[in-house]
Amino acid sequence: MELLDIVDEKGNPTGETVPREVAHREGIRHRTAHVWIFRRRGGVVQILLQKRSDNKDSDPGCYDISSAGHIPAGSDYIPSAVRELKEELGIAAEPEDLRLVGVHDARYEGEFHGRIFKNHEKSHVFAYEKPVEIEKLKLQKEEVESVKWMRIEDVLAAVKAHDPGYCLFEDEIEMLSEVLA
What we know:
Blueprint: E1 3-7, E2 13-19, H1 20-26, E3 30-41, E4 44-52, E5 63-64, E6 67-70, H2 77-89, E7 99-112, E8 115-128, E9 144-151, H3 152-160, H4 170-180
Parallel strand pairs: 3-8
Antiparallel strand pairs: 1-2, 3-4, 3-6, 4-5, 4-9, 7-8
């Protein structure tokens, strides 16, 4: 059972923990780490998107952040971000490879696999710019079906158009876009 720290409005652990399933059933605020892998090609910023596996408990089969994950109880943002990069994509990052872009507070409600899913997460959003070749990634098949590079403007346009193939937050992409411009 994966335990998460319950956090206050600033993202500080309250000293209480909750199983992940309960956090998502009841919409209890918890922490996540988001890592956006990006590159510049001909003056254009591209971001790496992962397509979530069909068996994920939320947003199966849609395009999402390069790498993201929950912060286990007692852990912190950067170690979790580094761990998720390794687990999901096979990238051996160092803490200093991650640049904090900002903090994102997100709420989302949906229904997946016949169950209500309520998400309330406080995320540290990181950028990662080391060279990444898709062909050399080791995708965690339980989590990631595939990956692709896209221009950040095209991703933002798809999200603004409410394209159901993308499970991303418009304001997080805008924040990232401003920092990477």
